[in-house]
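Possible race condition, two jobs.
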Amino acid sequence: MSQHYDYLIIGSGIIGMAVAFEIKRENPAARVCIIDKEQSEAAHASGRNSGVLHAGFYYTADSLKAQFTVTGNRLMKQYCCQHSIPVNLCGKLVVAQNEKELEQLYELERRGKRNGAKVEIVDEYNASEIEPNVRTFKKALYSPDTASVDPKLVCAALRKDLSAQGVEFFFGTKYLGHAENVARTTGGEFVASKVINCAGLYADKIAKDFGFGRKYTIIPFKGIYWKYTKNKTDVRTNIYPVPNLKNPFLGVHFTKTASGEIKIGPTAIPAFWRENYERLANFSLEEFVEICAREAQLFAANSFGFRDLALEEMKKYNKRYMVDLASHMVRHIDPEGFTERTLPGIRAQLLDTRHRQLVQDFVVEGDHRSIHVLNAVSPAFTCAFPFALYLLEKYDVIV
């Protein structure tokens, strides 16, 4: 028997659940369900990310990321406070290695101030007051509002909240296709007035089934972190390098987790299929052929510097290489202290296939029947609540 809903959300990650949260806040009587092919919420990027709440200084002022990060940071902290979820208010230092990177620090400061973020350039002395172990060239950028949470705790709290408000979850339920307002799944048919696609790694596939996202495809990148098990005290704040602003990756950095642990990462290693987490787990021959062919084209043409990026990132499979990169940002760290690899994540990075360029900003397409979140990469976790509200307003979801 078909089940009837006002809203069918595909994907129980942070974006899918934040959308449901905002729908119920605006219209408590709305019938909402969330389907997911996995057995629990946040099985992919939402539960495998660093948990860093970003402050909003990396992004150009005309971007959706800039529009939502400062507000998202505040709202996520509020949500955590209301639900007794620990937040590590550890801040962040972005450090420079040379004169050229020093110039980029000032660009980050300009972006941050335009976006309403609280940022300031500090000298080496003040940087060492914030983080005694930090090493930087003359100056550093300080972001006091950067913080860390446990993403799994946040997502578990959201699922509990939504269930209490009448949102129905159907796990082990994979989207198969649709006809008009009927969605076919492995768990039966769902009739919905509006479908909201928040499927992460498979969002582009589902979007194409509805006639959207035709100029895009997902290129997966694997993120690996190493945990510092020697102690929790050698580093007390997040320490990041100056990023290459031409691509969306932030480079290997030190992260302080919600529980105070220290880790370094992530990598941005091109993956060979969408859920290429470990060895041959979740292997798909069709995806392997499709993605390898696409990556071979990008490699041959060195589109957006993909060849250089791929060769550099592959080196990071070597733990010593990653530790060496991180060690340039601190005065001392024990290379033997990194003994545990954390759960790897996959970044569902959107590629514009016409121009062979990675898409930097959030991308959404849709109409009165369906909405498709095609690119919701970092800082999507931070931005989840205001981004969800933006979707509802842009597509007149609440009537």
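Job #2 (started ~2 s after job #1):
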Amino acid sequence: MTPESPLTLHDWQQSLRGAARPEKIAILSSFFKCGKGEYGEGDQFLGIVVPDNRAISAKYYALPLDHIAEMLHSPYHEFRLAALLALVRRYERCRDDRQAIVDFYLQNTAYINNWDLVDLSCPKIIGAHIISHPESTLLTRLSQSTSMWEQRIAIVSTLTLIRAGIFEPTIAIAESLLSHPHDLIHKATGWMLREMGKRSEQHLTEFLTRHAAAMPRTALRYAIERLSPEQRKHWLATKRK
């Protein structure tokens, strides 16, 4: 059962606004590609850095889900991140509430709409859920979505499985995303393959043997980043022009 919280949504928002650094707004807007035609177009920033956001939002995990939803639906990027950081803490602390958190997360993926929002939340919620529900087809469904963010959730959530020594979902989803057109998916896929290779170079080598020639160059470079210079040279040489 979720504990009662004496804190309020207003407290949370005011605390975050108090941590804002306006001089960082332009930097963050550029970093998260908020210009016209970019993937983060229209996103708004207050200038709150992640460590400050995490420290503040950890206190508000017990608020009702409709209050967290209000934060997640905010036009401010940092409020949405705050909601997700609170959800992660709630998932970790409130075992009886976990299915409701997963359901809430999946119902609100339209608002988990930048790479940091995905990466800082999905391994500890969706990935953790899959560890305890290995029969679930959730990752496959997300990987087949028309939403790039749901596809990124699918591949990045496998980080939790990789750390548990489970590599098959990463391999399957990476294979399904090889022809994806967006660089953010290429980066995420290569990142997960690299993480897999840190724990099993054999699995990475087998994947590269099958797919290196056809992989997007960004995905390949991310995947081989921790290999020896000789190995990196070999795999890059197999890449089709």
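The radius of gyration is 19 Å.
Logs attached separately.
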